[in-house]
Amino acid sequence: MVQKYQSPVRVYKHPFELIMAAYERRFPTCPLIPMFVDSDTVNEFRSEDGAIHIIERRCKLDIDAPRLLKKIAGVDYVYFIQKNSLNSRERTLHIEAHNETFSNRVIINELCCYSVHPENEDWTCFEQSASLDIKSFFGFESTVEKIAMKQYTSNIKKGKEIIEYYLRQLEEEGITFVPRWTPPAAAPSLETSLSCKKPAASLTVVVPDPTLKEGLSGEPLSTPSGAAEPTAGTPDDKLDADYIKRYLGDLTPLQESCLIRLRQWLQETHKGKIPKDEHILRFLRARDFNIDKARETMCQSLTWRKQHQVDYILDTWHPPQVLQDYYAGGWHHHDKDGRPLYVLRLGQMDTKGLVRALGEEALLRYVLSINEEGLRRCEENTKVFGRPISSWTCLVDLEGLNMRHLWRPGVKALLRIIEVVEANYPETLGRLLILRAPRVFPVLWTLVSPFIDDNTRRKFLIYAGNDYQGPGGLLDYIDKEIIPDFLSGECMCEVPEGGLVPKSLYRTAEELENEDLKLWTETIYQSASVFKGAPHEILIQIVDASSVITWDFDVCKGDIVFNIYHSKRSPQPPKKDSLGAHSITSPGGNNVQLIDRVWQLGRDYSMVESPLICKEGESVQGSHVTRWPGFYILQWKFHSTPACAATNLPRVDDVLASLQVSSHKCKVMYYTEVIGSEDFRGSMTSLESSHSGFSQLSAATTSSSQSHSSSMISR
C-alpha cells in the first residue's frame, strides 16, 4: 500500500531571498540532521541571465535501522537524488527527490516548493508532499515501512529548526537582507553546465525512508517563531500550519497530512459544501486517522444530514412544550478545560412518559438539536478561550434512577439515539461524569455499553453515592462556583427538574406511528437502488416547451451513469409482477424501470444529454432546458469500471476506487423539479435542494451557475 504525506502551508515571515540563503547553507551536509552524511553535486545549470539555477545532488544518508536489517540488505547507507530548481524571476524553488538505492524494491518520491506569500511579498510559503511504496524488501516490508514513516515524521519536525538556525547564523554575520534578482544590463554568457563525477557508490541503504528526503529538501514544516496567526492570504483550498495549531490543536505531521488529504478529496467531490475542518478532524480521530474509514463514515453522515435536513434543525424545529417542561437537561456554563457543559438529570426524568407522549422520533430529534447546539457552542468557546475546543462535557445525575427507567421501549429509544449520535457526532463528547449511580445502574450499563464506542467509553467517569465530592471528584473538572445547586454547589441551575409526565398527554400507538412517520419523511429527497442491468428511471411530463428540468442528486454508493431521454409517447407503467422484473423494492430505496425492452433508441426515444459518469461520493446538480413537449426520462444506470483501471489511478480516483464494493449495486438520493422558463434565472436559486449545503458544518456554501442545458458535478 502506498503511504502518502501532504503538509499544510508553512509561512515564514521572512523574504524569499533570505530563506534561500539560509536553505543553501544546509549543503553539502547539515549538522542538525545527523543522518545527512554528505552530498555531491552531480549536475548544475545556470541560465545566461542568472534567473534560473538548477542543481542536482546525490545525497548520502545513514538510516537509523536495526543492524540485522542492514546486514540482510547488504548496505550501510541510502543514496537519494535531489533536484533543486530555483527561479529567481518568479521567486520559487521546486525540490524533487527520489531514492537511488533499492529503487526497484522501494519507490520514494518527494516534492517541495518554496514560494512568495500571495498577499505579502516579504513572506515565504512552503509546502511538501511525499509518497512511499514498498514493493518488496526481503520479507521485512512492514518493518521497513514503520521505520521509514517514523524517521520521516521526526525529520519533518526539524525543518523549522534548521531554517531558523541558519537565519540566526546569517543575522550574526550581519546579513539580514538579500537583494532580489534583477535582469543584468549586459549579461555575458554565463551558461554553465557542470558535470561532476558520481562517486563510486556502494549501493547502500536498507530502510527506504521517506524521511531521508525531508532531510534532503530540508523543508521547514512549521512556521518560524515569528510566524503567528493564520494568514488570510493562504488559498482557500489549503490549510495554514498556524491556523491548524490555533483552531484545531497540535497534530502530528501524519495527522496533518490525513486532514489535508481528506479535505482535498471532499473539495473535489463536494465542491462548495464541505464540512468545517473541526468536523472532518472528528471523523478522522474516531477512526484513528484511517482515511478510508473516516471518508466512508463521513460520506454516510453527510448524506444523512442532507436527507433529513439536520443542518436547519435549530432554525426550523421547535421542541414540543412537553419536552421543554419534562426533559431534565440543559446547557450550564463550561468545565475547567473550556468545554461547554451539558447537565442531564436522568434520574428525575420520566423516560416512559416522554416516549408515550412524544414517541422516540421526537426524542431523537431533540437530542440532535442538543448536539447541533453543542457544535455551535464549541465554536464560540474556541474564540472565547483562544484555544481549540471541539467537544463538550456531559454531567449525568442518576439520583432517582429505578426500574421504571429500564422500561423496554424506553431502553430501545435510548439505544437508537446512541447509535445515531455515535455515527454522526463522533469525538464530540470530551468527558462524561456520571454521578450518584444507584444499585440499578449496572443493569442499565450492561444493556447500553455494547453500543458505545471504545474510545467514548474511556471518557466515562462513574461515581457512586457522594464519591463525587471527594478527591478526584467533581472539583477536578468543574469550578466550584458553577457546580449546580442540586449537587450541593453554589450555582443556580436552570435545567428543568423533570417529573412525571401526566398520562393525559399520552398518545395512542397509532398516533405516535403516524407522527413518527411524518417527522422523518419531511425530506424533499428520494432514495433509489441501481443494479447491474436494472437502472432506476423516473418520468417527467412536459407540456410547455422551454421548461427547465432541474436535478440534485448524491451518489451514495458505487459509480453510476446519468442519462436523460425524450419520448413522444408515455412508457407503460411499471409492472408489479411477482418476480419484480420492472419494480424492485429494497431497504435502501426503490428501483423502477420505465423504458420497455422492445423500445429502440432513435426510434421510440432519443437521448437529449450526453451521458454523465458520476463517481461514488459525488454531489451533482444540473438543469436541462426542454426543446419539445412530451415525456422525459431521467435514468441512473450502473457503471462498470474496467478491471485495469484500479491499478494506476490519479489521486482522487484512487481514493474512490478503494471504496468500491464487490456487489453490483449502487445507491442514489435525488430530487427533481420542473421550472417554467420565465422563472429560471440560470442558477440553482429556485431549486429547493440548492440549500442542501451543510450550513452548520460547512465553512462556505456556494451555488452552482447553470444555463441552458448543463450539468455540473461537484468535484
TrEMBL record:
GO biological process terms, semicolon-separated: innate immune response; negative regulation of RIG-I signaling pathway
Pfam families found in the cross-reference section: CRAL_TRIO (PF00650), CRAL_TRIO_N (PF03765), PRELI (PF04707)
SMART domains: CRAL_TRIO_N, SEC14
Function: May play a role in innate immunity by inhibiting the antiviral RIG-I signaling pathway. In this pathway, functions as a negative regulator of RIGI, the cytoplasmic sensor of viral nucleic acids. Prevents the interaction of RIGI with MAVS/IPS1, an important step in signal propagation. May also regulate the SLC18A3 and SLC5A7 cholinergic transporters.
Region (Disordered): 214-237
Protein name from the UniProt record: SEC14-like protein 1
Gene3D superfamilies cross-referenced by the UniProt entry: CRAL-TRIO lipid binding domain, GOLD domain
SUPFAM superfamilies in the cross-refs: CRAL/TRIO domain, CRAL/TRIO N-terminal domain, Supernatant protein factor (SPF), C-terminal domain
Species of origin: Bison bison bison
Annotated localization: Cytoplasm; Golgi apparatus
Domain of life: Eukaryota
Oligomer and partners: Interacts with RIGI (via tandem CARD domain); the interaction is direct. Interacts (via GOLD domain) with SLC18A3; the interaction is direct. Interacts with SLC5A7 (via GOLD domain); the interaction is direct.
One of the record's GO cellular component terms: Golgi apparatus
Domain PRELI/MSF1: 3-175
Domain (CRAL-TRIO) ranges: 319-495
Residues of the GOLD domain: 521-674
Alphabetic keyword roster: Cytoplasm, Golgi apparatus, Immunity, Innate immunity, Phosphoprotein, Signal transduction inhibitor
Molecular function GO labels: RIG-I binding
